[in-house]
Specification:
Length: 578
Amino acid sequence: MRTVLFLFLNALLVASCNAPKKNFLRAQGHHIVNGAGDTIILRGMGLGGWMLQEGYMFRLGFIGQQYRIRESIEDIISTEETERFYQQWLANHTRKVDIDSMAAWGFNSIRLPMHYNLYTLSVEDEPVGSENTWLEKGFALTDSLLAWCKANRVYLILDLHAAPGGQGNDLNISDRNPDKPSFWESRANQEKTIALWRRLAERYADEEWIGGYDVLNETNWGFEDTADFRGTEEQSNAPLRQFLVDVTRAIREVDANHIIFLEGNGFANNYNGIFPKWDDNLVLSFHKYGNPNVQEAIQRFLDLREEHDIPLWLGESGENSNTWFTEAIALCETNGIGWAWWQNKKMGINQPLEIKQPEGYERLLDYWSGKGEKPSPEEALSILNEWLENLKLENNTFHQDVVDAMFRQIYSYEALPFSKNAVENGTILPAVNFDLGRQRVAYYDTDTASYHYTPGLNTQGNRGRSYRNDGVDIRPDSLGHHIFHIEDGEWLQYSVTVTDEGITGLQLQVASEIETGRINVSIDGQTLAQPITIPTTGDEEEWVLVPIEIPELTKGKNVIRIKAETGGFNLKSIAFGL
């Protein structure tokens, strides 16, 4: 009997030793590693706008928080239709096709900004004050998202973006109602949050494609000095540290596997008083927006990494131009730091997917902003239903330039055609389809990024905020788009494949209201002998064709550059042949 028992126990031991290791991410020194011990650079995208709407994402910045957006919708249509709208919003905004696409573009991780109200009731709505009512909706959505991530071998990082009560003075970020006790003013809100994380950790403890728990997004709160509205100057941050310790303890009661990501005060930039570490599997998550992409901008986080032997993760960044994206990601990866961008889709150009504005949307905006009459419920419902359809990926506008800037351009200085650009006699090439590539490789513009958090740097990037997210200024017109605000020295490159013989001329479609510009044209590096004068047309959209004689283009690839020796004109297209 003893022999049998010995053999049985020995077999169990051998089996456990030979069992495949789980591929949990974990902190190891300065790095995040997988189950095999390989360093992992997280390249992620945040799903902003899905579970939590912020007004600016949909031109509703004047409304702000999600609960106020919901109230504004309910003011026009019925409560029942508003509930249906939000249920359909959750169904349409993020689906398996979105995760499949992000994986194909190169992302290996997803950051899920969660709203607590999909998982539990608010403190004031609990039927029994000290208890927690769990809502299946949020957990079911997370389960589905995790399944889609697993199918693509993509890590899912859970991020509590809107905590009970709201964790900051920037009300939109956490959907905070300032008339109710905040997260920091209510122990009940904090306890509910800790209970929610314990519940989530218990549910996902054995899921290896859960990348970790980002337990509280962007605290911005003055603890010692209430005048420190953003929490950027706090010296001790004692309540935040205590919460992070408490939530870690609750998670570790049920889950010893997953990383816990720490965000400091001041929008995840103030870590005074947060350390020393209290757990071996922590990662410091800082956020970065609108400042220069130089080593000095992240040096304080590198110093914390060194001092406390903790990995870094740029847990949120974006909302800028392609040039800024490329520089920021290159800065991170050069320093061994992973990143998660904000966000995958919204109205606008500076993310991979653009949600198209539904027809009649201006009617809603005018009414909600007090500038117009109230639409009828039928009209409003038609607009809102189109908005729901426009959320779907197949109805989004894909910005390939953004994805190219975030992945290929990090390590490549090659310019690629924006489209196929096969040309013959008579082909008209839109001017906005200049090459994909870095600044000074595919184009040169004097203003390529926004440094809105850096005093004295009042730049914008694409001033027209349409079509592309490069620094070139593009705006819509009645027949498409054109390039405007062309300044001295700026240039655009077009890689074309010529399929026809005998192309000995170009025609530039230009307009100039009051100024006379001059341009240089070069083909395959050879500049034409004489600059071309751009006539004044009397209006910035009064287009004329300027013919230019050129050496005959050879069949195959040709590279054409249009350079403004003197700016002040607009450019719409390039026609091949005279």
